[in-house]
């Protein structure tokens, strides 16, 4: 469904990605793991068109999207749930969800998706008229996921969805991501919680200083000596 070939991205003189190649099959949950600064967020930013690539090619459903704008990429069905939640703090929960659906015009389905999100996250339903900036960290994370679902994506990308959340909320967020995958949406997940990501994924890539150094099933990576010592605490 998504293929990245030889992707190079730079921030000024810093070469953050040095020729990344990876693939995601339809319906898969793929995990991208690696240390801080390895280039995981940069990979997601390049896919969603926020960051231009210096070289390489990204195709989605066989179409070259390397030079597409962020808006075009969203309209093709790729949603990005960024690190740090990034909800619109001065807008209400309802308004944030509306923003997720801004490229859609199917009013009835939009309303149904909103109710589905409130079913998944009852706390958001209780706070639908509250401004997002006053929500707790966990609630903002749920809202960011809900907003991404509102764009009705075929590929949903999560950047560190568990970052800074209490353990019980982390479990809930992972279970929601699993149910998003089970509903047929393809998922690419960047996660610092490597063990959880490897346990739930179909396939995983390990990124080190801008290059993919290892890939395989989650189990393959969990069993790998280097992954165990460097990322799973031995
Ligand atoms: P983290 O988990 O810390 O976010 P990451 O694997 O997602 O790590 P990136 O954020 O993709 O890493 O960063 C990759 C490299 O690019 C790092 O060396 C980082 O310092 C650099 N970088 C990222 N964003 C910028 C920026 N806006 N300007 C300059 N350099 C940047």
UniProtKB/TrEMBL annotation:
Residues 2-234 form the ABC transporter domain. PANTHER family: HIGH-AFFINITY BRANCHED-CHAIN AMINO ACID TRANSPORT ATP-BINDING PROTEIN LIVF (PTHR43820). This is ABC transporter ATP-binding protein. GO terms for molecular function: ATP binding; ATP hydrolysis activity; branched-chain amino acid transmembrane transporter activity. Involved in beta-(1-->2)glucan export. Transmembrane domains (TMD) form a pore in the inner membrane and the ATP-binding domain (NBD) is responsible for energy generation. Keywords: Amino-acid transport, ATP-binding, Nucleotide-binding, Transport. It comes from the Bacteria. InterPro entries: AAA+_ATPase, ABC_branched_ATPase_LivF/BraG, ABC_transporter-like_ATP-bd, ABC_transporter-like_CS, BCAA_Transport_ATP-bd_LivF, P-loop_NTPase. GO terms for biological process: L-amino acid transport. Belongs to the ABC transporter superfamily.
